[in-house]
Amino acid sequence: QVQLVESGGGLVQPGQSLRLSCLASGLNLDGYVLAWFRQAPGKEREGVSCISWKNENTYSKDSVKGRFTISRDKAKDTVYLQMNSLQSDDTGVYYCAAATDWATIEVLCTADTHEYEYWGQGTQVTVSS
Hints:
Elements: E1 3-7, E2 10-12, E3 18-25, E4 32-39, E5 46-52, E6 58-60, E7 68-73, E8 78-83, E9 92-100, H1 105-109, E10 118-119, E11 123-127
Parallel strand pairs: 2-11
Antiparallel strand pairs: 1-3, 3-8, 4-5, 4-9, 5-6, 7-8, 9-10, 9-11
């Protein structure tokens, strides 16, 4: 049984940091891209950052480049999203997802949510003063 379990969300003030974690189980991760999506109230779910588990190639959307860093720990089967300089626009539910690694990281990170086979339950991030 495949499980992606997110943790680390919370309420922070603008300018502060959070680190999200996604623990994966039941999956041979070498064949997958792991991604963080987010969904703000009233908006569609969007890809934020992605990492190829096998070669560690990464991609992030322009609005988070320089602020968010995605990484993975093979020994712990865990993907992280370090989020610095958080802004109110970063508020939303953050989801961890996995897709088969069949294309470039940019293609997969900008693909529709239907490309992703497995999803976590999400963790809320609220940035507010």
